Structures are given as structure tokens and as C-alpha cells.
Amino acid sequence: MDLTFGEQVKILLKRRKMTIKDLADMITEATGRKMSRQNLTQQLGRDNFQEQDMRMIAGILGCSMQVVLVSGEAAAAEPSVFE
Q1: What whole-number distance in Å separates Cα of residue 15 and Cα of residue 51?
Q2: For every one of its 83 residues, what pLDDT tens digit does the chain have, with 9 covering 90 and above?
Q3: Nearest to residue 63, comparing CAs of 19, 16, 21, 29?
Q4: Which residues, 6 or more positions from 22, have their beta carbon under 8 angstroms from its beta carbon?
Q5: Distance between CA atoms of 70 and 78, rounded to whole angstroms?
Q6: Which 3 state secondary structure label does DSSP give 54?
Q7: Quick check: helix, strand or coil at residue 65?
Q8: CA angle 37, 39, 40 (to 5 degrees)
Q9: How far apart, in whole angstroms, are the C-alpha atoms of residue 27 and residue 32?
């Protein structure tokens, strides 16, 4: 079972002993746009992110991000990976 981006972020936050508010504050600092804890919590729950925001969050968390496309027919086949 694959984890969504939001689920992965929550796991990384827990491993780093960070809160969603910590991440929201870091996003605000990095972008200059106000990000509230409530808004980020909703986005994580809905997994509602644009790719550029996902890449920015990954960078803030010290991670790289890959986009993987897997067709329903070829779930067992090798996925296409883009960085």
C-alpha cells in the first residue's frame, strides 16, 4: 500500500519531533505567504497540494521528491520515475 504525500509528511514530522505548526511556520518563512496550522492540517488531510508546494515542503524537510507514474494495468511492472 502506497502512502499519500500528506501521510508521508506526517510521518516525517513525527520522526523529526516537529509539529504541523512548526512546518506551517517554516513554510511561511520560506515563501513569505502566511500558512496557518489549520490550513496545513486541512491540506494534509485532503492531500491537496500543487507539485511546486510538495517540492518546497520536501526541501524544508530535507528530502528529495520523485514523481512516479504507475498504470493500473502494470502495477507489478517497473514504474516511470521523474525527478
Answers
A1: 23
A2: 588 899 999 999 999 999 999 999 999 999 999 999 999 999 999 998 899 999 999 999 999 988 877 777 655 555 555 55
A3: 16
A4: 13
A5: 8
A6: helix
A7: coil
A8: 65
A9: 8
C-alpha cell read off for 73: 494495468
| Distance, CA of 12 to chain centre | 9
Hey, CA dihedral for 15, 29, 35, 66, is it positive or negative? negative
C-alpha span between 6 and 11 (Å, rounded): 9
User: What pLDDT is attached to residue 5?
Assistant: 92
3-state secondary structure of 81: strand
CA proximity to 10, closest of 50, 55, 44:
44
Q: What is the pLDDT of residues 72-83, one digit of tens each?
A: 765 555 555 555
Record the cell numbers describing residue 72, joined without a space.
Answer: 493500473
